[in-house]
Design a protein that fits this description.
Elements: E1 4-8, E2 22-24, E3 27-30, E4 33-40, H1 44-55, H2 57-65, E5 71-82, E6 85-96, E7 100-105, E8 120-124, E9 130-135, E10 138-141, H3 143-150, H4 154-164
Parallel strand pairs: 1-6
Antiparallel strand pairs: 1-4, 2-3, 3-4, 5-6, 5-9, 6-7, 7-8, 9-10
Helix pairs in contact: 1-3
Protein backbone atom coordinates (compact mmCIF):
# COMPACT_ATOMS: atom_id res chain seq x y z
CA UNK A 1 0.00 0.00 0.00
CA UNK A 2 1.38 3.39 -0.98
CA UNK A 3 1.23 5.87 1.84
CA UNK A 4 1.54 8.85 -0.47
CA UNK A 5 -0.96 10.72 -2.58
CA UNK A 6 0.32 11.61 -6.01
CA UNK A 7 -0.52 15.11 -7.18
CA UNK A 8 0.29 16.68 -10.49
CA UNK A 9 1.67 20.14 -9.85
CA UNK A 10 0.07 21.61 -12.94
CA UNK A 11 -1.87 20.08 -15.81
CA UNK A 12 -0.26 19.18 -19.13
CA UNK A 13 -2.28 21.87 -20.86
CA UNK A 14 -0.77 24.40 -18.47
CA UNK A 15 2.84 23.32 -18.45
CA UNK A 16 4.64 22.80 -21.72
CA UNK A 17 7.07 20.30 -20.25
CA UNK A 18 9.44 19.63 -17.44
CA UNK A 19 13.15 19.11 -17.65
CA UNK A 20 15.43 16.66 -15.84
CA UNK A 21 13.51 13.39 -16.06
CA UNK A 22 14.23 11.57 -12.84
CA UNK A 23 12.57 10.73 -9.58
CA UNK A 24 14.05 12.54 -6.60
CA UNK A 25 12.47 11.53 -3.34
CA UNK A 26 8.81 12.40 -3.69
CA UNK A 27 9.12 14.33 -6.96
CA UNK A 28 8.93 12.79 -10.42
CA UNK A 29 10.05 14.93 -13.34
CA UNK A 30 9.17 13.49 -16.72
CA UNK A 31 10.18 15.02 -20.06
CA UNK A 32 7.27 16.65 -21.82
CA UNK A 33 4.95 15.92 -18.89
CA UNK A 34 4.09 17.79 -15.69
CA UNK A 35 6.08 17.36 -12.53
CA UNK A 36 4.42 14.91 -10.15
CA UNK A 37 4.85 15.36 -6.41
CA UNK A 38 3.83 12.75 -3.84
CA UNK A 39 2.62 13.81 -0.42
CA UNK A 40 1.63 11.85 2.65
CA UNK A 41 -2.07 10.98 2.81
CA UNK A 42 -2.28 12.71 6.20
CA UNK A 43 -0.52 15.93 5.05
CA UNK A 44 -2.62 18.48 6.97
CA UNK A 45 -1.68 21.44 4.79
CA UNK A 46 -2.54 19.59 1.57
CA UNK A 47 -5.78 18.22 2.99
CA UNK A 48 -6.66 21.76 4.10
CA UNK A 49 -5.99 23.05 0.58
CA UNK A 50 -8.32 20.42 -0.89
CA UNK A 51 -10.99 21.34 1.66
CA UNK A 52 -10.63 25.04 0.78
CA UNK A 53 -11.06 24.19 -2.90
CA UNK A 54 -14.30 22.35 -2.13
CA UNK A 55 -15.54 25.22 0.05
CA UNK A 56 -14.88 27.80 -2.69
CA UNK A 57 -15.96 25.75 -5.73
CA UNK A 58 -18.98 28.04 -6.08
CA UNK A 59 -16.59 30.84 -7.05
CA UNK A 60 -15.13 28.62 -9.78
CA UNK A 61 -18.62 27.71 -11.05
CA UNK A 62 -19.57 31.41 -11.24
CA UNK A 63 -16.44 32.25 -13.25
CA UNK A 64 -16.93 29.22 -15.51
CA UNK A 65 -20.50 30.34 -16.26
CA UNK A 66 -19.51 33.99 -16.82
CA UNK A 67 -15.80 34.19 -17.63
CA UNK A 68 -14.04 37.52 -17.88
CA UNK A 69 -12.21 38.07 -21.18
CA UNK A 70 -8.89 37.66 -19.34
CA UNK A 71 -9.80 34.26 -17.82
CA UNK A 72 -8.74 30.98 -19.37
CA UNK A 73 -7.53 27.46 -18.58
CA UNK A 74 -10.46 26.52 -16.35
CA UNK A 75 -9.50 23.23 -14.68
CA UNK A 76 -10.57 21.01 -11.81
CA UNK A 77 -8.49 18.37 -10.08
CA UNK A 78 -10.01 14.94 -9.56
CA UNK A 79 -9.05 11.95 -7.43
CA UNK A 80 -8.41 8.70 -9.31
CA UNK A 81 -7.80 5.39 -7.55
CA UNK A 82 -6.78 1.88 -8.47
CA UNK A 83 -6.47 -0.44 -5.49
CA UNK A 84 -4.39 1.40 -2.90
CA UNK A 85 -2.88 3.77 -5.48
CA UNK A 86 -4.37 7.27 -5.51
CA UNK A 87 -3.49 10.08 -7.90
CA UNK A 88 -5.03 13.54 -8.16
CA UNK A 89 -4.97 14.82 -11.75
CA UNK A 90 -6.26 17.83 -13.60
CA UNK A 91 -9.21 17.86 -15.96
CA UNK A 92 -9.20 20.39 -18.77
CA UNK A 93 -11.96 21.42 -21.19
CA UNK A 94 -14.21 21.63 -18.14
CA UNK A 95 -17.92 22.24 -18.26
CA UNK A 96 -20.47 22.19 -15.46
CA UNK A 97 -24.04 21.01 -15.97
CA UNK A 98 -25.41 22.20 -12.62
CA UNK A 99 -24.57 18.96 -10.84
CA UNK A 100 -21.43 17.47 -12.35
CA UNK A 101 -18.15 18.69 -13.78
CA UNK A 102 -17.17 17.04 -17.06
CA UNK A 103 -13.69 17.30 -18.52
CA UNK A 104 -10.73 15.62 -20.13
CA UNK A 105 -7.85 14.13 -18.13
CA UNK A 106 -4.94 16.52 -18.70
CA UNK A 107 -2.19 14.45 -17.04
CA UNK A 108 -0.48 11.15 -17.70
CA UNK A 109 -0.81 9.03 -14.55
CA UNK A 110 2.36 7.98 -12.79
CA UNK A 111 1.12 4.61 -11.45
CA UNK A 112 -2.50 4.11 -12.47
CA UNK A 113 -3.40 1.96 -15.47
CA UNK A 114 -7.20 2.48 -15.35
CA UNK A 115 -7.06 6.08 -16.63
CA UNK A 116 -5.03 7.83 -19.30
CA UNK A 117 -4.37 11.25 -20.76
CA UNK A 118 -7.38 12.43 -22.77
CA UNK A 119 -9.99 10.22 -21.06
CA UNK A 120 -13.33 11.87 -20.33
CA UNK A 121 -14.22 12.03 -16.65
CA UNK A 122 -17.08 13.45 -14.57
CA UNK A 123 -17.35 14.26 -10.88
CA UNK A 124 -19.60 16.11 -8.47
CA UNK A 125 -18.52 19.51 -7.18
CA UNK A 126 -18.00 18.15 -3.67
CA UNK A 127 -15.55 15.56 -5.04
CA UNK A 128 -12.99 17.95 -6.52
CA UNK A 129 -9.58 18.19 -4.91
CA UNK A 130 -8.80 21.59 -6.46
CA UNK A 131 -9.85 24.10 -9.10
CA UNK A 132 -7.96 26.78 -10.97
CA UNK A 133 -8.35 29.59 -13.47
CA UNK A 134 -5.66 31.67 -15.12
CA UNK A 135 -6.67 35.34 -15.13
CA UNK A 136 -4.21 37.12 -17.41
CA UNK A 137 -0.94 35.87 -15.98
CA UNK A 138 -2.23 35.20 -12.44
CA UNK A 139 -3.35 31.95 -10.82
CA UNK A 140 -6.82 32.02 -9.24
CA UNK A 141 -7.66 29.09 -6.97
CA UNK A 142 -5.04 26.39 -7.37
CA UNK A 143 -4.84 25.75 -3.63
CA UNK A 144 -2.91 22.48 -3.93
CA UNK A 145 -0.54 24.14 -6.41
CA UNK A 146 0.15 26.88 -3.87
CA UNK A 147 0.99 24.36 -1.14
CA UNK A 148 3.46 22.55 -3.39
CA UNK A 149 4.87 25.81 -4.77
CA UNK A 150 5.46 27.21 -1.28
CA UNK A 151 7.53 24.13 -0.41
CA UNK A 152 9.93 24.66 -3.34
CA UNK A 153 13.31 26.32 -2.97
CA UNK A 154 13.42 29.83 -4.52
CA UNK A 155 15.27 28.74 -7.68
CA UNK A 156 12.65 26.05 -8.39
CA UNK A 157 9.82 28.53 -7.79
CA UNK A 158 11.23 30.83 -10.44
CA UNK A 159 11.61 27.97 -12.93
CA UNK A 160 8.08 26.70 -12.19
CA UNK A 161 6.51 30.10 -12.83
CA UNK A 162 8.48 30.50 -16.06
CA UNK A 163 7.39 27.06 -17.28
CA UNK A 164 3.79 27.55 -16.23
CA UNK A 165 3.49 30.99 -17.76
CA UNK A 166 1.63 32.46 -14.81
CA UNK A 167 2.35 33.97 -11.40
CA UNK A 168 1.61 32.00 -8.25
CA UNK A 169 1.21 34.63 -5.55
Amino acid sequence: MRKHLVLCLVGLALLGGCKNAKREGKTARRPGKPTVISVERDDEEMNGAMQKARQTVGEFIEHLANPKPSEERFSVKAKFAEGDDVEHMWLGEVRYDGTMFHGTVANTPLHLKNVKLGDRHSLRAEEISDWMIIDGSRLVGGYTIRVLFNRMPPEEKKQAEEECGFVID
